[in-house]
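quick one, two chains, predict together pls
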Amino acid sequence: MLRTLAWRAAVALPTLLVVSALMFMALRLLPVDPAAMSLPPNATNADIAAMRHTMGLDKPLPVQYVIWLDQVLHGNFGQSIHFRRSVAGLVANALPATIELAGSAMVIAFILGVGGGLLLFALRGRRSELALETATTLAMSLPEFLWGLLFIFVFGVALNWLPFTGRLAPSLPQPPGTGFLLIDSLRAGRIDIFWSALLHLILPASALGIAFAPPIARVLRASLLATWEQDYIRQARLRGISETRLLLAHALRNAALPSLTMVGVQFGFLFGGSLLIEVIFADPGIGNLMVDAVRNADLPVIQAVGLTYCVVVLVINAVVDALYMVLDPRLRRA
Amino acid sequence: MQLPLSRRLLLASAAGASLPLPALAAGQDSATMGWPSDVPGWDPTLRFAPDAQGIYKMVFDQPLTQSPHLKLIANVVTKWQLAPDGKTLDLELRPDVTFHDGAKMTSEDIRYTFFERVKSGENLDISKSFRTLVGVDTPSPTHAVMHFSQAFPTAPVWLAFLGSFVLPKEYLSKVGAAEFQKKPIGSGPFKLAEYEINARIVLERNDKYWGPKPALRRITIEIIKDPSARVAAIQSGQLDLTVNVPVREAQRLGHIPGLASELDPITRIILLQVRNDRNFSDENVRLAAHHAIDKAALSKAFYGGAAVPLSLPAPPGSPGYVPGFHFAYDPKLAMQLLAKSGYGPKNPIKIGFDTTNGQFPSDYDMARAIAAMWKKVGIEADLKVIEYAQYFELNRGDKLPEATLYSFDNATGDPEIYAGYLLNPHLPFSPWKDPVLGKRVVAQFTVTNEAERIAGWKKIEEDAVNMGACMPLLQSVITLVRKKNLSYTRYGNGWVLGQTFRWT
């Protein structure tokens, strides 16, 4: 297993290199000048020329890329043009909010997906199956930001049940620590902050998670149908095992592998999908940071956030591979 | 197999749905405000950010400030006198101003903020506005004298404008710029209590403030970039006040019991920035393009009629405004002018037309409406969307098209910062590169006699509009929605200051 994971890591490095090079070159093709953007509009052309030299923008593009890469390898992602502070610090500051949101959304997507898959399987051949399939199609066809707006207007405005701006109630302080509010509040022993953070997470995480649940449900249903026809299931049934136990203890474990792949793939999309959700729900994650960066043509931040997305997807793929091996002993032997 | 949906499950769900919400906005000594953008950092001299000015003004003091009607007034500087040659500015400071750490503000802090830090080579935006500052004398702790290498008639105006906030020399020198960003100290009516980037700013009242004490103890600013989310948040009671919501939403929210909404004209203007070459080299075409635009209709369609149509790049009430000057909406005249140059609806002249989409309310829709108005008279516009950040780069590269829809913010209302910046060929705002008008504009920057200065800018504005070098459209509006019992002071430049909030 370790060898496989090491191989995965070795493959990830060139992938990261290619992605970073493509991103670097593509951003340099945009008609924006980072030097000019880093100065106020009343800067003169001479000011801009001097800044271009300071930033190394007068060097050939490949040289600029090598310099940038060397800095990145030393943990230096440069300075934000807009915020004039360390890009690494900005990303590190914003990342916990996104991970917390995406993680919560994944939990919701997983619960809804697995629950929905089991329900679809249980209702197979009945009229209600069609209704549930229609519901999953609907859930899938609406983009996450529309779910977000819908949830805000229904649960936030019309029913006034849940908060939907930021991560905490205005009256509560942000606890110091990791940036993961749920963890930090518990570490600080502040149940009120934990509760507030949890309530603030429900709507954005649901909006993000709901669109990703149907594919998991459908894949699970399909693999359950295939597993249900296997000989070992028939034999287990002949031994008098109940249908529920047969489903949950025997069939589900074997049918879970394709769904796990789907969860891995979906998490990458879900992480990317947090961009609009964070803006709508005023969640200060890296999606929100990215929107600012694009608006201000803050190229160092765009590069760093893009690279972060890439790293997250690669890490998730590696984690899914590891889980595969845990769940399927044949892969370990291979 | 069926999974039962029991009554118990339903009841549990219903109970879960009625979970108590944490404390929402409102309280007699606090208020929560929804703001569309974050500050770029907590050194207010570092980056110019017009939308952040109001937030900075709650934490830091400017040497001078503006009244709600935009008159330049005293602040920590009580008296100021610009020498007749415009090269020396004498400043008298209040003796009782203290920073949040208790240190007294003196003329050394003025010298440090506007001169020493700038000359030390730090990349501060303020260094570009005070680039001609060659020294600051400090004869006494309450007396500072600024010396400029050339006439700087708008120096007092700039002391109340972008980035001009007095910073504490002692504290900043001790902790350094990076630490200052984390724990900023000003002398303003509020102290920064908590800051989460892109999320919220929590301000606590400075009880030792030298000026009128704020009525509220705590102001929380929630950074909510999405206008729909701001609408929903104020409607649901999660905010006490918010700004820049769509005009129609502001009008709708104003009818909800307990809420009030306002559409106030501000110093931000919307105009077409134009070139003096390509298919706009012909003055007839430019003037026709201007005469063809029904500005009142644009205001009605996109700003509920609240945005004032402009004939000059100076809004009513500002020093550069000329009350009798009117540039008419006259499509017939537009067609006549075009016909003189050989164009018409059947033989249209083609121009490029750039716009932003989402930079200010209804920008793209307004550009489409203008393109439709032009089509009727014989101007065919190729409309393209650009990012606001691209504007300056395209202009520097001489790649802007004949016309670009543009919004320009000038909180001071001074005509130099309108016409002077918008038409100065050496600054990146203007695609108009005509050397004749350009020379007049540049020369006007050094006129020190105030009456002559204002008169000169008025003449330049009129001439620019009459020759089609500038096409002002509308005075922009700020939409503000608040709880009815939260009062605030309106400023003509759109500042929304927490120190003026009061629950009634």
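The longest helix of chain A spans residues 243-280.
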